[in-house]
Amino acid sequence: MRKSLVKTLAVTMAAVMCAGMVSGCGAGSESKKADTQAEAPGTGDSKTADKSYELTVSGIGGSLNYLPIYIAEQEGWFKEKGLDIEEVLFTNGPVQMESLSSDGWDIGCTGVGGVFAGVLGYDALVLGSSNTDDGTQYVFARNDSDIVKAGKGHNSLSDEIYGDADSWKGKSILCNTGSVTQYVLIKVLEGFGLTVDDVNFIAMDPATAYSAFLAGEGDVCVLTGAGGTFKMLAESDKYIPVASGPMADSGLMCSFVANKNSYADPDKYEAMKVFMEVYFKTMDWMKENKEKAIDYCVDMNDENGSSMDRETTAKYLEADTYYTLQEACGMLNDKAEGSDHSVMDQRLLDVLDFFISVGNYKEGDQERFVGHTDGKLLNEVLTETAN
């Protein structure tokens, strides 16, 4: 794997926000490769290594939507298709998208915060979705919090959410800004008839928020992904999950975002098709090889500085659902009920409408967003792999 200045800068930025983040390939992959090589997805399929490609791929370190890339890299499945991947890892979507201003990468895996930052800030394209993204988003309070003492049943979104309006008002909340964690928090507050103006919002990326909360800072902590969520769930004697993405009915998902300049380049376009083919076939492999997928997820998070034990990692992998290639294309092609937009576009627009309503984005951004989803590439991959 080649390293670049962009990657160095990305790690430096991440280090400022989250001490201990590490990216790269780990030792021990050769033994796994020997066990799984016969099951390598895509061997002998539509695109063979009759041509070489290069692609810079960005993602969020330790995330579920980056795991298929990690596995395919460790197994050498991209290289078998002639694709050389250069990885660039970040701690959150908005920071990830900032590097698009310098053409820092070609294609990226990101959450909804990264999607909006990329499209509205840097004219990026959305190529499809990879997985649901609400199963790992949790809102935690300490067991002795008056939010916990207020009990359940006072939130209009779910009777399972803890607290009432009075117990939430004025609380110091550690949460990443402009991301899915903020979206979940805003929805939870709305269920109490509150807004972010009614609390003390303290912007922190999830890993930093986790560390700060453990150290006694803040009254509430909003986490996502591997950055402490399942570690905190395991410490039920200290912390209570007072709300979550599913409780808040967030309906969030992770997506692929492309640099518009790269997408317009014929060679990069073909490289992205190879990337997508391997990515979705790796997800299929993961469903058939769950124990090996858990092993790889453990390794990935060890290297990312967010280590989890095997039991916790298994729960992490079960929290969200990976889409099949057919499902991803269906969301791009099918119209949402009662809408002229595709299922995927409508889901994203619903989230964008909510962000606009609370001031994160402005009126007119809906119109700016429309037209930035392009299903051509993914549909071509589906057609070619079916032949």
From TrEMBL:
InterPro entries: SsuA/THI5. One of its GO terms (cellular component) is periplasmic space. It is found in: Periplasm. Residues 1-27 form the signal peptide. Residues 29-48 are annotated as: Disordered. PROSITE patterns: PROKAR_LIPOPROTEIN. The keyword Signal applies. It comes from the Bacteria. The keyword Signal applies. Residues 65-293 form the SsuA/THI5-like domain. Keywords: Signal. Belongs to the bacterial solute-binding protein SsuA/TauA family. This is SsuA/THI5-like domain-containing protein. It comes from Enterocloster bolteae 90A9.
